[in-house]
Records
---
Amino acid sequence: MAAFNERMASFLVLALALCASGTWAVDRGNFKTCDQSAFCKRQRALKPSESPYRALLETMELTNTRLTLQLINDNNKVRLLLELYRLQGNMTRVKINELKPLKPRFEVPDVLIRDPPTEPLSLLSQDENGVVLSLGSESQRVILSARPFRLDIVEGRDVLMSLNSRGLLAFEHLRMRKDTQADPESENKEEVDPANQDETAKDDEDKVEDGMWEETFKSHSDGKPSGPSAVSLDFSLPGVEHVYGIPEHADTLRLKTTENGDPYRLYNLDVFQYELYNPMALYGAIPVMLAHNSQRTTGIFWLNAAETWVDISSNTAGKTVFGKMLDYVQGSSETPQTDVRWISESGIIDVFLMLGPKPKDVFAQYASLTGTQAFPPLASLGYHQCRWNYNDQEDVRAVDAGFDEHDIPYDFIWLDIEHTDGKRYFTWDPHKFASPKEMLQGLKDKKRKMVAIVDPHIKVDNNYKIHNEIRSRGFYIKNKDGGDYEGWCWPGSAGYPDFTRPDMRAWWASMFAYDQYEGATDNLYTWNDMNEPSVFNGPEVTMHKDAMHGAWEHRDVHNLYGFYVQMATMEGLIQRSGGVERPFVLTRAFFAGSQRLGAVWTGDNAAEWDHLKISIPMCLSLGLVGVSFCGADVGGFFKSPSTELLVRWYQTGAYQPFFRAHAHLDTPRREPWLFGPENTALIREAVRQRYTLLPYWYQQFYNTHQTGEPVMRPLWVEYPEDPATFTVEDEFLIGRDLLVHPVTEEGSRGVTAYLPGKDEVWFDVHTYQKHNGAQNLYIPVTMSSIPVFQRGGSIIPRKMRVRRSSTCMEQDPYTFIVALNPQRTALGELYIDDGHTFSFNNKEFIHRRLSFANNILSSVNLAPEANFSTLSWVERILIVGATKPSQVTMRTADGRESQVEFDFDTTMSVLTLRKPGMNAGADWTVTLH
């Protein structure tokens, strides 16, 4: 009977999942539009230029680092408190909260890595209309206008950014409901302090609109005991036509205007087989937007974890190129401008204005607030093989052997939910995975690893240790009545741990210890899925907003949930090794700061060409806002790819940061060797190209860990003054020196790549053919083609001996590819450490600068205080764009000099130095005579 009940529960869960999914296609009706989201509809109905807010200048207080003053809403007399800070690194922070709220409003914790350090503010002038503050230099100022309230950030004669210039600031104050049977006298007691308002707020309190105190979506009712609590603010960006960021959306890199449709939505949701090119919410939400023109890059970080909508309008939207030319000829003085409005359901306004001026300055500014990308283990940059699900241990062994048989390297094999004992996480199916340690040891013997899924929905089962522990400790999220919140997910009835609690996260982390997670070993890593959280029978396939996390409603913290799940899991993997080993954790849901915790992927995509194409702008958008470790399911999760699509996806995925193939339970098997010898060879070559470039990938991840600069980046990041790069999304840069234009069109016989930079030269990495920059280059392609170019003036390290995994290649020799540009010194870097521990934090690494100038190639130590040794040596140097020397000599640090054998290809101007033989971590010079 128990087995029947479990089968019945599984059937119901699958039926619910299919209903939620619209059976293989997203059912838009499961997800709200702005009109169906009461606070969004209410805020969007406000008319511009009718702001009721004014600044009460007599309340202004200015200390060395902080300005405060009160704002009053003249319609209802509610007062707000404005705080303004000048932050180190050319940033300004603006906070707006109720002066005396009925109860505290939620302020996002744990996302900022520290309290941001401030710098002095000084008053330049003041009159009855407003104040002018200096932001450090005379040229950069904040102008605060009193009636209506408005802030302008000005540099010289240019307005960089304006707040509330359209008058759309809105702050719905917390209040007690008047249309109830409560004691009418109680509302005038201490909870509503008249000092909060010049007069007791009345006008909008008496007006009850649909959705203010409760709203219904489909069969779900959402009670709002504190009433409406939305916050909103508009930002104007003069001179800006291009804005980016606010992932996650399956949309273009450059954000579109939203005037004729829904705003972009930020609300972590399990959107089964999502549609492309629309602003619907997806699995993650990072409320960060970048604005760019050829003079400047700025950023807006809206620190709010509630459901958020972002409206974008532009005064140049819809104008044709001819229309813009006509404006120019006729002398139109209209400056291009983009206006952005942020609307959140609850919380406060806490916004960071990142003032650049260069793209890399904005990356550094955001990194100083929320941290940089976690430095991943080297092996995690290799290839990952996954499906839902490998059947049993024998299946895992056979797939592992298949990679060896077909000479395809890989580092990780993955197990989805079916590996558990009845969807009980931290367990193994006792029949299919009866001896997990033996299975993991077999992988370890080949220097390979495994990832197993651990989801945050916990099967309600009194015989399940994890459930009993969470329930007995009171760690489950509560429903509005105080009982444990339960919803349906893969196990059937499930509880949801409250990861917002530090003690819950600490307990969860302890469950990854080897004496708790039975069968786990040090080569087992973790995947957190369904952590939006996904609730099959909940509103919009997620949790009810009136569920409780201690004192806070779920509506306040929703977009933080997945962030906290990944945080607790990451801490567990670190703790199990005594703090020695770097973790690897993949998450589906994420928020600002998630880059510190591991990797993300673009969720449940489909085996369609458009899904392959969209993976590029989706990962570029994530990189712009801190998350560099991004990838998409190679081949598509749903449906079955044609062999052409599968090959092209491998070729694209091999040049994206996170490289994993994954497929749905109901799709035919698609291991790389199942499509005939010719396609196997094409896939093998793509994967091998990834492995030869692992030294470069690793160095790029070290760089992003240090600086916040994206690994996979749009062309405009490196060529910010070139408008031709501003909307390019079918090609990208890895670091600054590799340009990739994957083939993403079915039946393609050629692609047109834009090679940026009027002073640049670009070399095809396969043929070494040279091309000038600042041109559109047509490239004929065959099925074996992956158009990749190395920038002239760069040096890229590779390892050409590809073995079964990255760990097997650890001590292998290096090849340096030196691509010359006669106008500049060629530069590159080499970074080496042990590949898997935190020892790099203790200066145990090698970091060297490679440079070629005046016919001398040298390796210089960039970190003389660091200490690490390697057995790897340099076995080959290719100098592309060279002239033939008469001889080549090498000098080592101890003064020894020797001649180096070389070949010269006159047709391609490639000089090959053979076996120079120096240690990769040593000082040396090579001179061309």
---
Amino acid sequence: MASSYDGPWPARTVRDGFFNYFRDKNHTFVPSSSTIPYDDPTLLFANAGMNQYKSIFLGTVDPNSERGKLKRAFNSQKCIRAGGKHNDLEDVGKDSYHHTFFEMLGNWSFGDYFKKEAISFSWEVLTKLYKLPKERLYVTYFSGDPENNIPCDEESRQMWLALGMDPTHVIPSKFNFWEMGATGPCGPCSEIHVDRIGGREVPHLVDGDDPTVVEIWNNVFIQFNREEDGSLKLLPAKHVDTGMGFERIVSVLQNKMSNYDTDIFTPIMLKIQELTGARPYTGKFGAEDVDGIDTAYRVVADHVRTLSFALSDGGVPNNVGRGYVLRRVLRRGCRYVRKKLGAPIGTFFSSLMPVVVEQMGDVFPELRKKQNAIKEILDEEEESFSRTLDRGEKLFDLYAARAKEASSKELNGADVWRLYDTFGFPVDLTRLMAEELGLTINENEFEAAQERSKEASKGTFKKDKVDTVKLDVHDLAALEKNDAIPKSDDSPKFQLGNITAQVKGIYYNREFLTSTANIPDGANFGILLDRTSFYAEAGGQEHDTGNIVIDGTCDFEVTNVQAYSGYVLHSGHLKYGHLNIGDEVISSYDELRRWPLRSNHTATHILNFCLREILGDHIDQKGSLVAPTKLRFDFSHKAQIALPELAKIESMSVNWIKKNVKVYSRDVDLESGFKIPGLRAVFGEAYPDPVRVVVLGHDVDEIAKDLENPRWRSTSIEFCGGTHVAKTGDIKDFVIIEESGIAKGIRRITAVTGQEAQEATRIANEFKSRLDRIEASSGKEKDAGIKALTLELGQADISVLVKAELRDRLAAIRKAFDKQIKEKEAALNKAAVDALVTHFSTNPDSEGYFTRIDVDGNSKILQNVVAQGKKLGKAVYVFSVDVAAGKVAHANYVPDAVRTEGFDARVWASKVTEILGGKAGGKEDGAQGMGVNVGEVENAVKVARETYPVRK
């Protein structure tokens, strides 16, 4: 056993002690799987230590893989319970032990040791390693379920007693039966609880939700399989799955009643105080936490851990599934920071995150590796929410005041939906804010408003496809004569954040109206503002989306933005309320959509420059697309770009990103702009005068003072009216996913940046790992793996360079495999035919050859053996089993002399089919078939021999 330690038990020592103990017990350390379970669509997040071993428990693991060879394992699994079946999000902060992120220490046995050893290990760790007094420990075991014919786990009870436990501390429980799902592996479990206080007898508090008696460890004994009909069958291999909550065992060993009082959290609490200037954390709960500041400390400390780990594993906040959960977690935390801790938000969580990295980066190195990426994502999300939090809270206060004026304890559900739809307030955040004021939410009204919004969106989507709002030449002529509707000032599109603006025009059904009052609900129409922060589609960059809002009064959802001779038309539909000419509104583009658009536009400039540098000055832009998820660039070039050149282009682009140079932009007069060496402009494009110039790494003012200096050719300089990042490092990453020809002399490159690039790299690495496993496999498994990967690789959006490398490897593996199979088949064929020849050479008077051949069910070889028998004029019936497919191939031959006496090969095959099942057919002289009863092969051989007529 690992040497014991007397305390004071810092968290790191607790974890190390557990690791060292099981390492000494011949367990293999398996690094924690990702909190994002990419290969398990049934989970939002990894929520238990056993998740990564599911394939072993289910028996679907590749026996030749590293995982398939595991017998004993241990680790600390990163777990998140913030969505789906296991969701502790709304409990965090309210008590001493709920967390959305936690570590689960675990040890596993896969068909190796079972109950006795597992129980003994946990007892030794707790009483000898951690030196917990056994008098403070209580255990539960499964008491049985007579109704469903599941026996009591008397084995576990006896094992605990044999270790010296007081019988009154060994407690039966009907709940101690663990199941993975409705069907599949399952079994009894034995939980270990500890009395935090000691010096008393408290078996009645076990499983009683008493904070002084808590469960710390669970041993699950997987010995049954739940069948489709609900019955249980013993598994051929029994497994052990255990889990001990790291935060909880640390609190017990450090003699703290709250997990948040341990050194797992105290460094985070101190940093929160430093960043916010709030009073120190005092550990109060419920009514005692009068100002709610202690609750805020706990929420923020928990949430920064969840976000740090989820984002380090590739999670991305967005509006769908786990991405939405992460957005909710961040926004919930931001609200506590602002409301309770009194600190500004925008970069708060990224400033707090380094404490988590410092504490846990050694155990989980992915935190250190991804620290910069985590910071960037947190800042983007937090900065976006910061601009709506104040507005949303003011509106919430208005709704709450309205409810109190009506003597209601319930918030209107439609108002709660608006808080989400317009300001991004997750409903659980609004519910939390309501609880603080003693209010509830009318859930029925909320669901009805949500459903109405969904239906309206469906209608708008259809209208967008067939009834796009456009200004034609007559509309523009009318606008030019109308002084009340000026051309739009869209310069704010180059800045961050919302602006106030005034409604100048409402355009519906080819008319300019003074109000939206008579426009039908859900109809598409256009709005013209005196000034706008929205980007109208231009220069290949997609338009912005967002909202034009009067807080609490109306919300116009902008789904399209187009510019017509200086008039920027915002198309969309009203979610609620009405607009009138002259109304002051907030112009609020979707910042989270704009972020990747900026990155992709600057990356397009970098790509354009690198193409010229690598391929030559003949490169001219022929078209482009800048979308949130990708960029596309069309250019003149006569031939396909060779992979080495493509690699140089990608590498040079990535280097520009790594250099993190500033991106400058300013208007210059058109004539001066064209004088700049190396300037890139689209041939035939009509540019405004003055024209906006975008430059990487050099101030435009510096260039303007020395226009014709040849050194400007060493950087990217373009005429461009698009939006761009502040510095190239904001792009994060760049991956070319396609290079193709679209017309004679025109090539196209498609690339991804940021999160999409990281996801492309992650998928590519998965392909590499799968290919490694395929290369190490054999037989039909290898063949199936090659086929599946070839198909998936062709459809994958990954680096075109990696794809080419993987295709080459796959082709080489396929060639070697086919050669191996061909050689093996030839050897098997020769051996099988030689065996028949030898049989008749040794036994010249033998009537026939009836046997099983070990050729993996290869029908072709069976036919070759039959053909050899035919040459010799001898009867043959041969069989071969395909174990993997669970089938039996069989074939026969009846010599002419026997057939003329009335014996038919088809009848002979039918006798065998009665034994093997399946089907058979053929001709009078020879038949073949495929049976399904693998276990009956020897009997079938016997029947074939006995039913063949012996000639006298």
---
Amino acid sequence: MAEHESLEFGKADFVLLDNVSMPEFMANLKLRFEKGRIYTYIGEVVVSVNPYRAMNIYSRDTVELYKGRELYERPPHLFAIADAAYKAMKRRNKDTCIVISGESGAGKTEASKYIMQYIAAITNPNQRAEVERVKNMLLKSNCVLEAFGNAKTNRNDNSSRFGKYMDINFDFKGDPIGGHISNYLLEKSRVIFQQNGERSFHSFYQLLKGAPDSLLRSLHIQKDPTAYSYIRVGGQMKPRLSVADAMKVIGFTGDEIQTVYKILATILHLGNLTFGVDGDTTLIENKKLVSVMRELLSTKEENVEKALLYRTVATGRDVIEKQHTEQEASYGRDALAKAMYERLFCWIVGRINDIIEVKNYDARVHGKNTVIGVLDIYGFEIFQNNSFEQFCINYCNEKLQQLFIQLVLKQEQEEYQREGIPWKHIDYFNNQIIVDLVEQQHKGIFSVLDEACMNVGKVTDEVFLQGLNGKLAKHAHFSSRKLSPTDKSLEFDRDFRLRHYAGDVVYSVVGFIDKNKDTLFQDFKRLLYNSSNPVLKVMWPEGKLSITEVTKRPLTAATLFKNSMISLVENLASKEPYYVRCVKPNDVKSPLLFEEERCRHQVEYLGLLENVRVRRAGFAYRQTYPRFLQRYKMISEFTWPNHDLGSDKDAVKRLLQGCGFDHDVAYGKTKVFVRTPRTLFSLEEQRAEMVQRIVLFLQKVWRGTLARMRYRRMRAALVILRAYRCYKVKSYIREVNRRFRNVRSMKDYGRQVKWPTPPKVLRKFEEALRSIYSRWWAWTLIKGLTPEETLQVRAKVASLEALKGQRADMGLQRTWEGNYLRDSPDTAASFALITSELQRKDKFMRVLFSCNVRKINRFHRAEDRAVLITDRHLYKMDPLKQYKPMKTLPLYNVTGVSVSPGKDQLVVFHTKDNRDLVVCLQGMVPANESRIGELVGTLLSHFKSEKRKLQVHISNPIQCSMNGRKCSVVVETKINQSRPDFAKSRSGYVLTVPGN
């Protein structure tokens, strides 16, 4: 511990003091305060001294320093105790709590905020949205509760005027999943009265100073606090707008926040409400405020006025209205203001709990959820005038001190004695006698107060004091002026003194009876329950009771508070506690002043010196032998996985001897006791190392098991898959065989037979099979064709491959004649003569194609010609001169053919010498017959037979070269055109064709 801080800062742990005495304790505490070391350990208890200044020791870097570290590894800090509580919760699956105690102004609220900040920072490294939301809610709830539950006192600028205990729930992974807040005894009397120099709750001033003007106008209030009777004595404060934002983040709706503003404004207006008397009638002097409150409370004006001036009383079956006196009306007004604020505060806590509480958590599915509790409750108070609230607050501190004594001192000593461990007894002050003085049945102060409140007739505070004098006259810790007539510090019939563990406190009984009865007229409850504002209605459920309904007497404020304190202590006792003991260095909030006498008094009543002595004499850790073995047995080969020694105690001895810790432990009857934290931390480190190895081993074995299981499943699946594939393949082949068995005898050779759907693995096989079938089917069709028919089929196939999808009509359905000029009766004789002569001269084998055409001559004019294409030449002929050849073009000089995508008969023959031939086929019978497909197919088939390539282009316009000049031919339709014809254009030529 101490090795991490130089001795110039004093001892980091009071257990390390050379001599345990009050002077040495105070000297070490003072030295550390002056050196800026505000935290010091007593073992696992943190002593915190309020520095009264901001300190840069809570940053993210500091969080990382303490995260996952043991207490002794870093200098004392709140983060260390928070981390210890978190680790204990996570490691041992045990609920823990952090109890923060000390005087008002000692820094308890700030400590609780830093602890919450640390827990939020170290959880959920992956920043999952839901966990982040819960953490944000828990942190923001602090801001809201401070605004409505804290106030400035003469001792503390941010004093908690209520007790708060927060449970934070964690899932099995250690991530926060929700929480629950319990509040205790809000000091609601502060709403209507504050001592000089003090303020009411922060919420009023934040509303006045921080709200926009539009909101203030809607609430009929102004920014000046001195304009309101209830809060005018309070000082100024800086506005804080973050509270409304925090409420929105938590989940309060806009209507709910607006209702909160309205209730605060109503309370301020109530304080300004005054009553007067006109004869026997009590009147409201400033009735305009009644109208304002009616608007804010969403009720009727006459109902508000009636509730303030009258009280409805049931006498048997009769109901009468009793008018208040001026004093009764004022009392009722103040009681309403206090009750409205208290209900508002409890409703806010309830709403926060509704939002942050764990929902839909099933331990069987999600694992056990564990809890860290953080208690931030009022500190011990001694004011100039101490009333009922201070009495309850100091009783609460007595209960918490009793718990500290019981858990840290008394139980420790009793356990050592029970286990037979050598032990030096240490005297300590047991404040059980004071707790009994307050809460004991029939004799305690609370019982006497309740009895006084139940008496028939007019009950006064003096009657209560007389009851105390009668029952507690012989008690050593109680005195009054009647019992000590010479003690002039006590007033007759007003004061009594209690000797608390923290010192003597004089209480004034004035107001005890009224505050304990906590009377609020039923008329106010009905008024607010009948409001049309649903939020306000929820706060006053008992308002639905009829005036004639008989109900049980409600529990008094003292009884309710006593029951809640007993429940709180039982809750804390069921958890593993960690303590933060806060010390206030001075009463003037100075960051430099250390009032030794003031601090010594706190050290005495907090029992810190006794705590040091117990710690030095005792053991840091104890555990039953079976549980100890369960956690640490993996460290030793003699205990892992199970031991064969005589008992668990022998096994624990063997384990610790093997680790070399035998000198630092003691063996009780049922438990092993470890003296120093260092030994425990060393055991934890060894365990963490072994757990890592064990986890790796288990992961290896489990992964091997999973791999074998996956392999067996995969192998079985593959066997099944293989068998299934074989079955599907065989089924498919059998089905194909069945369907195509008789195709030879079918008329269409099986063309109409539907192919079965193949399995995925046979899709390529099916494609090949279809291809084979198609070839067989085609071969079957063409094997009986004549050579001429075969040539025609090949030409049609070539045409289909070249033009399919790009020209609508290819003439595939008709017989291709080829030599159309030979078959014309008008030209057959002269054409046959010319053809014979050309064949004799050029030695061609056959005519591929012949047809009349319209062409463009070299003078860019259109003229009629005929085209004869043989297997060697392309001839242009003049039909007017008995088809005399005009020009011969060798076929090897033709490089390509271009046609348009329309129904026209435009053909462009491309040549090597860029002297393209542009023609339009004509003379078709019937007139709409297309010969483009025949021409292209015939040429392609011939070129393919000679293993030459012919380029075929389909476009509009068609690019070509005329006499070496680039130009284009465009096809256009024209209505009333009799036949296709060419015309010159800017870019080349236009072929106009009939549009109908």
